[in-house]
């Protein structure tokens, strides 16, 4: 994924009083003309949604839920064979979603959108957008003291000036109350009440270059972040602080898998993947057999790991991520770009990509498209 245009991020702003006024204006006095239509216009309910580009798919109990372009969210109660469209209050592209049980789930996307569902993905409400995010960051920066104050205030003012175009790229919830959303330029927020309130969290992350955060996962009592330019971070204090890990790779990591056994797999550009069995202290390169960028992954019920690529690869590992085998016999068309994968309750895979959603039947020696 290309680095986003920084726009006005080179400007400086250090006056606390002006910042507070700007935050108040954003939070309370935004005119209708300043709010992008996509933040107030519900996603169009149409049969064409079944063929929309989809960027995320996840399980909500036995149900599957997928999200993608123009606010499209679909759900399936028959293992991905048929899909229905959910009611969504925005029409921005949605990049990631997660459920903590069969009812409670969140989705994030462009223009700082955070959505919540309490009914397994059938209906959604907006918890955050880029306008509110800017106000929260500005308010937090205004209250800061010490050597980082001026920089934090300047960055916050840029968020206000730039408007609501603040994409979130991933999220992580470990319960129905506690979670994080993260994205471009180190943007990160935390909630401890299920999204009723949010706190800016980027000051807790050691990321002085403001690199994009692409993925987050937790295992073994630790939390991990992955981002561009080889950025990997770990928290061992329940998210209070994230420190950088030595990384063997300088390209972007687009995601993380943290297995139930405690292993880590970071994956990203040009088929690169790296494995760690010691909480990120050391890393071993994994031969994935592809040069296509790895866009999504999942751990299946039996512990098998699966990665999907922008070149249409479906890669399986049955040794906790140390090696992968491409499933090709009768499988997906090689030209189909894939973005995410989840397992249906009948054991099949469901992959999300630029041409919609497809079931992929698992087999011993091949993956077959249905």
Describe the structure.
With about 375 residues, this protein is mostly beta strands. The protein folds into two domains: about 25-30 and about 40-295, 7 Propeller (Methylamine Dehydrogenase, Chain H); about 295-370, Thrombin, subunit H (Beta Barrel). The protein is built from four helices and 28 strands. It has helices at about 15-30, 35-40, 130-140, 150-160, and strands spanning about 55-60, 65-70, 75, 85, 95-100, 105-110, 115, 125-130, 170-175, 180-185, 190, 200, 215-220, 220-225, 230-235, 245, 255-260, 265-270, 275, 285, 295-300, 305-310, 315, 325, 340-345, 350-355, 355-360, 365-370. The strands form seven sheets. It has a four-stranded antiparallel beta sheet with strand order 1-2-3-4, with no helix packed on it. It has a four-stranded antiparallel beta sheet with strand order 5-6-7-8. Helix 3 runs antiparallel to helix 4 (about 150-160). The longest helix has 14 residues, at about 150-160. The chain is globular. The two termini are about 30 Å apart. About 50% of the residues are buried. Mean pLDDT is about 85; it is low at about 1-35 and about 365-370.
* Number of H- or I-type helical stretches: 4
Task: Give the averaged pLDDT, no decimals.
Answer: 86
* Helical residue percent band: 10-25%
The description of the largest β-sheet is: 4 strands, antiparallel
Shape: globular
Q: Provide the CATH superfamily of the largest domain.
A: YVTN repeat-like/Quinoprotein amine dehydrogenase
| Secondary structure: number of strands | 28
The CATH architecture designation of the largest domain is 7 Propeller
* Rg for CA atoms: 20 Å
Low-confidence stretches: 1-33, 365-370
Integer tally of domains: 2
Cα distance, first to last residue?
29 Å
Indicate the CATH class of the largest domain. Mainly Beta
Strand content of the residues, in percent? 35-45%
Instruction: Please state how the strands of the largest beta sheet are arranged side by side.
Output: 1-2-3-4
CATH topology of the largest domain: Methylamine Dehydrogenase, Chain H
């Amino acid at each position: 994924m290309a680095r986003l245009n920084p726009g006005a991020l080179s400007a400086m702003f250090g006056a606390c009083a002006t910042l507070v006024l700007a935050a108040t204006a954003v939070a309370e006095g935004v005119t209708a003309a300043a709010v992008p239509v996509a933040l107030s216009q519900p996603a169009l309910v149409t049969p064409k949604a079944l063929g929309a580009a989809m960027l995320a798919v996840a399980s909500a109990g036995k149900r599957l839920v997928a999200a993608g372009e123009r606010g499209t969210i679909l759900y399936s109660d028959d293992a991905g064979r048929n899909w229905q469209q959910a009611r969504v209050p925005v029409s921005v592209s949605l990049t990631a979603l997660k459920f903590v049980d069969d009812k409670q789930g969140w989705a994030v996307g462009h223009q700082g959108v955070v959505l919540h569902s309490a009914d397994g993905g059938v209906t959604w409400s907006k918890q955050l957008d880029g306008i509110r995010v800017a106000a929260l960051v500005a308010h937090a920066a205004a209250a800061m003291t010490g050597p980082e104050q001026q920089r934090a205030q300047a960055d916050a003012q840029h968020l206000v000036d730039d408007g609501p175009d603040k994409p979130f790229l991933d999220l992580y919830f470990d319960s129905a109350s506690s979670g994080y959303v993260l994205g471009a330029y180190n943007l990160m927020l935390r909630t401890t009440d299920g999204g009723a309130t949010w706190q800016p969290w980027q000051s807790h992350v050691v990321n002085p270059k403001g690199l994009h955060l692409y993925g987050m996962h937790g295992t073994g009592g630790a939390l991990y972040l992955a981002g561009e330019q080889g950025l990997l971070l770990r928290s061992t204090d329940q998210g209070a602080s994230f420190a950088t890990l030595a990384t063997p790779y300088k390209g972007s990591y687009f995601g993380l898998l943290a297995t139930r056994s405690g292993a880590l797999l970071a994956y990203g550009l040009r088929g690169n993947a790296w494995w760690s069995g010691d909480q990120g202290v050391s890393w071993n390169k994994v031969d994935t057999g592809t040069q296509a960028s790895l866009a999504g992954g999942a751990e299946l019920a039996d512990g098998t790991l699966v990665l999907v690529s922008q070149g249409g690869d479906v890669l399986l590992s049955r040794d906790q991520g140390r090696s992968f085998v491409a499933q090709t016999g009768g499988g997906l068309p090689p030209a189909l770009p894939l973005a995410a994968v989840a397992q249906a309750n009948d054991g099949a895979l469901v992959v999300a990509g630029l041409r919609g959603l497809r079931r992929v039947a698992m087999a011993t020696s091949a993956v077959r498209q249905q």
